[in-house]
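User: Can you help me understand a structure? I only have the sequence.
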Amino acid sequence: MSEPSVLFEGALGRMRPEDVLQSVPAGVGPVKLTFEVDDRALLRPHAVDLWLDSGSLVGLGPGGTGLRLGDLVVARGVMPRGEVEAASQGEGPPLGERLVARGALEPEALDDLLWERHARVVWSLLAWDRGRFRATVAPPGGPPVPVEPPLPLSGLLLDGIQRAEQALGPLGP
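Assistant: Let's start by predicting it. Here is the structure, written out as tokens:
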């Protein structure tokens, strides 16, 4: 198997993650963008893989696929953990589809939860101030976790920056 074609790479600190995300060239097809940082607590590297195409997030993984949908359902108070775990047992459709079929979620609520799940991966990167990044031509076969519908990066970045500013609170008196 041949090495993927590297489009660009570098160190975070010289470039901010949002600048790296906006530097992915359009028109080259799907790009796999990998961010890595040495986790000082776990003493091992931590990676996040984003799949981008035409300015949109189209997939995640295998590194850093983010919060599991079931965890987000529990965190949002939609269902207790025991019910989510029971719904996820056995073979069958993905958890979100199961929850809609059971009447525990409306399709629109599932879309909102999936959007948040995928967006949180991008938002978490905005806080990274060290590490490395590498953009390569995406391997064939598609991403391990598809993001459907694709999420425009510009909206994800704007929303992430607004959330960070809100977390800081008002400036001045």
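Now, to help you interpret it: The mean pLDDT is 88. DSSP finds six helices and six strands in the chain. Let me know which part you'd like to focus on.
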